[in-house]
Design goal:
- The complex is a heterodimer of chains A (about 110) and B (about 110).
- Chain A has about 110 residues and is mainly β.
- Chain A contains no helices and eleven strands.
- In chain A, about 0% of the residues lie in helices and about 55% in strands.
- Chain B is about 0% helix and about 55% strand.
- Chain B starts with a strand and ends with a strand.
- Chain B is globular and about 35 Å long.
- In chain B, strand 5 (about 45-50) and strand 6 (about 55) form a beta hairpin.
- Chain B has about 110 residues and is mostly beta strands.
- The chains are: A mainly beta (about 110), B mainly beta (about 110).
- The interface between A and B is medium-sized, with 24 and 26 residues.
C-alpha cells in the first residue's frame, strides 16, 4: 500500500517568513495530493490539492509543488500570519477509492512566532 | 448551516459500555466516512459508505459497527469499549468514492475510563 512520509513534525517560523512542509510518497500510481489544515480542537479542512498532471498550484499565500519523478510534494506558505498556526497534513491518493484510496502523513505542527 | 454534523462532541464512558456516535451531512454527497485520530494526531480511515453500501472496512475490531440508514447519515456504534478506543472520531463526506475534497465533521472526543 501507499506510504506517506511528512517532514518536519514541528516547524517554528517568525511571522512574515515563509514555511515549507515536505512529503514523500511511495506508490508512483498515486495521482491526487491534498493538504489539510487542522487548528487546535477543530476539524481538518482542505486548503489546497493538486493532481499528478500539474506541477504547481497556487492560491493566494499557499502553493503546492509536485515532483512526480522524485515522488515528493511540498506545501509553501508565504508571509505567514498567526492564524496559520495549526497542524498540516499531506495525503496521497490513488484516486480510485477503496481501502488504499487516501493515505495521510503524520502531520506538521506549524508554529508562527510573533 | 453545518455541512457535516456529528454528535456528541464529547463522550466520556466506562470500559465495557456500548456507545454510539451519529453523523449527518447536508451536502448531498454520495460517500461518507469514519476516521480515527489518535493522541499523536494520526488520521486513519475506518469505514466508508457509498449510497448506504459499505465500501471500505479497514482492519478495525468488529466491536465497531457502522450503520447507514440513508446516504445522508452514517452512525458508528461501539460495543464493549476499551481504554485503547479513546481518540477523536471524525465523520466526513465527499462527492465521489475517492476520498477527494473531504468535508469533516467537528469530531467526537471519546474518553474511555
Amino acid at each position: 500500500g501507499e506510504n506517506v512520509e511528512q517532514h518536519p513534525s514541528t516547524l517554528s517560523v517568525q511571522e512574515g517568513d515563509s514555511a515549507v512542509i515536505k512529503c514523500t510518497y511511495s506508490d508512483s500510481a498515486s495521482n491526487y495530493f491534498p493538504w489539510y489544515k487542522q487548528e487546535l480542537g477543530k476539524r481538518p479542512q482542505l486548503i489546497i490539492d493538486i493532481r499528478s498532471n500539474v506541477g504547481e498550484k497556487k492560491d493566494q499565500r499557499i502553493a503546492v509543488t509536485l515532483n512526480k519523478t522524485a515522488k515528493h510534494f511540498s506545501l509553501h506558505i508565504t508571509e505567514t500570519q498567526p492564524e496559520d498556526s495549526a497542524v498540516y497534513f499531506c495525503a496521497a491518493s490513488l484516486g480510485g477509492g477503496g481501502a488504499d484510496g487516501l493515505t495521510f502523513g503524520k502531520g506538521t505542527h506549524l508554529i508562527i512566532q510573533p | 448551516d453545518t455541512a457535516v454534523s456529528q454528535t456528541p462532541k464529547y463522550l466520556v464512558t466506562q470500559m465495557g459500555n456500548d456507545k454510539s456516535i451519529k453523523c449527518e451531512q447536508n451536502l448531498g454527497h454520495d460517500t461518507m466516512y469514519w476516521y480515527k485520530q489518535d493522541s499523536k494526531k494520526f488520521l486513519k480511515i475506518m469505514f466508508s459508505y457509498n449510497n448506504k453500501e459499505l465500501i471500505i472496512n479497514e482492519t478495525v475490531p468488529n466491536r465497531f459497527s457502522p450503520k447507514s440508514p440513508d446516504k445522508a447519515h452514517l452512525n458508528l456504534h461501539i460495543n464493549s469499549l476499551e481504554l485503547g478506543d479513546s481518540a477523536v472520531y471524525f465523520c466526513a463526506s465527499s462527492q465521489g468514492q475517492g476520498q477527494e475534497k473531504l468535508f469533516f465533521g467537528s469530531g467526537t472526543q471519546l474518553s474511555v475510563l
